[in-house]
Amino acid sequence: MANVPLPPESTLDEKMAKLEKTALFMRELPDEPTDDPTIAALQSLLYEGTPDEVAQNFKEQGNEAYKEKRTRDALGFYTQGIGAKPTDHTLLEALLCNRAACNIDLQNYGSVLRDCAKAIANNLQCSKAWYRSALALNALERYEEAIDCCTRCLAYDPTNASVKATLAKAEKSFDFQKRRRAEKAEKERLEKERERAITSALSSRKITVVPKASEAATNEAPPIHFDPDDASRSALVLPVFLLYPQHATSDLISAFHEDTTFGDHLSQMLPPLGTRPDWDTRGEYTLDNVTVYAASRSHRLFRIGKDKTLREAMAAPQKGQPQDGLEIREGCLSFVVLPRGAEEKKWVDNYKKEHPAQAPGR
Predict the structure, then answer these.
(1) Where would I find the TPR repeats (predicted)?
(2) Are residues 271 and 148 in the same domain?
(3) Does residue 107 fall inside a structural domain?
(4) Are 232 and 158 members of one domain?
């Protein structure tokens, strides 16, 4: 005779879950309609009686669920109680405050404030509504309003310890918030002042800041700033690109003080003191063998001596054309570095072709 496999034995939890689906052992009735006549009859009993009786029944079920930490179930019962539209104002107030307690646990602070507002409209001396409003407002960092709620409550309920504790917390948080806001406002004020000062300094040097081609353009250039060691706040420090068009590469000098020379920087970057760049396979780029060029806003070309400072380079375009100047693009000033000789002449000739009747300034 073949062995017939027995069905697996149910666990205790599975047995209890199955038992709770029967009407006699249900902890709560389902909200949706059912074909089970016993459950349907019990559902109908929930709404038998006056609105106050129905609401009271749901309130008691909600209280039981809340004690058992079944917060969402309790929320549902209180909502059904409110939906029964009780005429007893005290009962309605309790349902609203109890539902607010559930929503505090669930962090539904907007719902807390709405229910508490209704409870207070029903009874201006509803301490639970003022208290729970303050809890929600504290959680939302609306400390000034939380203080107002506590103050109003303590005006008629001066010994309420929970409200006193909430008031102390709100006052402490509000003081901290005010300090943070004041610090932020001062920081923003100083930043705007710094930006205005830098804009004025650039304008006096006839430097134009060209807007980015698009908002998506990225710019990793360090910010333009004043020399922190200069008490007069008159010396600028700017990011500068040195371009090597012959090799389609560049170097970024992140902090070029305007009173330092190009030679000061190039001497650290190029031989004999610096290291020969990997891309300079012919050894053309040495301190004594390179020339620096700058192009102005009006496309005039200027040869900048390595003994010249950045301040002098920025002033060069104004000779003969007082309103001309250099441009800042993508946050940086740019200068071209070329080896003397054929490559230099070739690049300058190409520049002249692109910008007719313009020659390098000296």
Answers:
(1) 127-160
(2) no
(3) yes
(4) no
- Least Cα distance to 347 among 277, 245, 279, 251 occurs for 245
Do 39 and 166 fall within a single domain? yes
Considering the domain architecture, whether residues 237 and 324 belong to the same structural domain is answered as yes
Tokens in use for 62?
Answer: 């909600």
Q: In whole angstroms, what is the distance from residue 335 CA to residue 252 CA? A: 11
Q: Are residues 357 and 244 in the same domain?
A: yes
Q: Within 13 A of 203's CA, how many CA atoms are on the CB side?
A: 6
CB 168 within 8 A of CB 175: no
Identify the burial level of 134 via C-beta atoms within 10 angstroms of its C-beta, where 0-12 means exposed, 13-18 middle and 19 or more buried: buried
Tokens matching residue 312: 């002098």
Query: Tens digits of per-residue pLDDT, 46-100?
Result: 557 899 999 999 999 999 999 999 999 999 999 999 999 999 999 999 999 999 9
Range of the domain at 284: 225-361
| Residue 60 belongs to some domain of the structure | yes
- Whole-model pTM: value is 0.63
pLDDT (0 to 100) of residue 359: 42
SS3 of 167-230: HHHHHHHHHHHHHHHHHHHHHHHHHHHHHHHHHHHHHHCCCEEECCCCCCCCCCCCCCEECCCC
In contact, 129 and 97? CB cutoff 8 Å = yes
Please state, in angstroms and rounded to a whole number, the distance separating the CA atoms of residues 175 and 102.
29
For residue range 182-228, list pLDDT tens digits in order. 999 999 999 999 999 999 999 999 999 998 776 555 556 789 999 99
How confident is the model over 308-350, as pLDDT tens digits?
999 999 999 998 889 899 999 999 999 999 999 999 999 999 9
For 25, phi then psi, to 5°, come to -110, 10
Instruction: Please tell me which residue, 26 or 193, carries the higher pLDDT value.
Output: 193
Indicate whether 167 and 48 sit together in one domain: yes
